[in-house]
Specification:
alpha/beta; four-stranded parallel sheet; disordered N terminus
């Protein structure tokens, strides 16, 4: 994570004290950890927000769970004094930009995002400069510094609608996810210039392994996130954001689903539709039965407890970057509200 892109204030303590505190947290039982987290959240007027991809036990203790759009919308309207963002680092940055008067914490500042890291702000700025006159549309999975050279931010929940809201003849740069950008091009008939980036989780799904699962479960419907590669997307019965796939799985009459997105969403799917079966699509480079984001899984109950207890690490975004990045984020929220998203 580049120091020029983001700053994160990290708890300052000597090694022995840090080790002692970590050991103390580890000594708490699972039930005690959860009780302490809830006590601290109430005491400090803190709201715990979690993405669908983090560990299920973290999702269960959160005040609010959602995809990137929902987390941004919730952060923008919360009256809590402290926001604890359980997800990857750019999500904490987004909350900090939207809520400069609040303390924003992340349980592990090292939980980065491969997609965000695939689009360094300086390189993206040069790319934008090389294509003057283009509207710059950036996926929310970007650092604050990359958002600062963006005209409007999108998520997988609203990318199509926001692109369609732009003038038909407007030349557009879309970054950083080339798979999502190509999918939006196919839906809208646009010819956006795509940055060459990808999510390491969604790029790992293979047509062959999904077809093998389909052969084993012929009645299962295939749910695919649009960050997946084009050939995988073509297999889908439903393509959509994490929230859209969850909504479809709950409402649809099918009893089995093959899910091609980060496997953390299966926790909420199973809770919401316990009578149905959800089968994670495996990655193409492993014998593992599911495809996980190792960064999302860095967020644990112990780290959440220590984060709330110490009110650290704090996410901060340099003022000059925040002043630029807030504009495309607010534009996204405004368009989404107008469109009822």
């Amino acid at each position: 994570m580049s120091k020029t892109q983001t700053t994160c204030a990290v708890y300052s303590c000597n090694t022995s004290k840090a080790e002692a505190e970590k050991k103390a947290a580890s000594a708490l039982s699972h039930a005690e950890l959860k009780a302490e987290i809830r006590r601290l959240a109430k005491e400090k007027n803190a709201v715990i927000m979690a993405h669908y991809y983090v560990n299920g036990e973290v999702q269960d203790i959160a005040d609010f769970i959602g995809d990137s759009l929902a987390l941004a919308q919730q952060a923008a309207k919360t009256d809590a004094d402290i926001i604890v963002l359980c997800g990857v680092h750019f999500m904490g940055e987004t909350a900090a930009i939207l809520c400069p008067d609040k303390k924003v914490l992340v349980p592990d500042p090292a939980a980065t995002c491969s997609l965000a890291e695939s689009c360094p702000a300086d390189e993206f700025a040069a790319f934008v400069a090389a294509h003057p006159g283009h509207t710059v549309v950036s996926y929310v999975n970007t650092t604050a510094a990359t958002k600062a050279v963006t005209d409007v931010v999108v998520t997988s929940s609203n990318a199509r609608q926001i692109v369609e809201s732009l003038p038909e003849d407007a030349p557009i740069i879309f970054g950083p996810d080339q798979n999502l950008g190509a999918y939006i091009n196919s839906l809208t008939g646009r010819n956006m210039i795509l940055w060459n980036g990808a999510c390491h989780v969604h790029a790992r799904f293979s047509v062959e392994k999904i077809l093998a699962l389909k052969a084993e479960h012929p009645d299962a419907k295939i749910l695919v996130h649009p960050e997946c590669k084009g050939p995988v997307v073509k297999l889908a019965d439903k393509v959509g954001s994490t929230a859209a796939l969850l909504k479809f799985a709950i409402a649809d009459e099918a009893k089995e689903f093959i899910v091609a997105t980060e496997s953390g969403i299966l926790h909420e799917m199973q809770k919401s539709a316990p009578e149905k079966t959800f089968i994670p699509a495996p990655p193409d480079d492993s014998t593992c039965a599911c495809n996980e984001c190792e960064y999302m899984k860095m967020v644990t109950l112990e780290k959440l407890y220590r984060c709330l207890r110490d009110e650290q690490p704090i996410v901060t975004v340099p003022a000059d970057i925040a002043a630029k990045a807030i504009k495309p984020i607010e534009r996204m929220l405004s368009i989404s509200k107008q469109l009822g998203l």
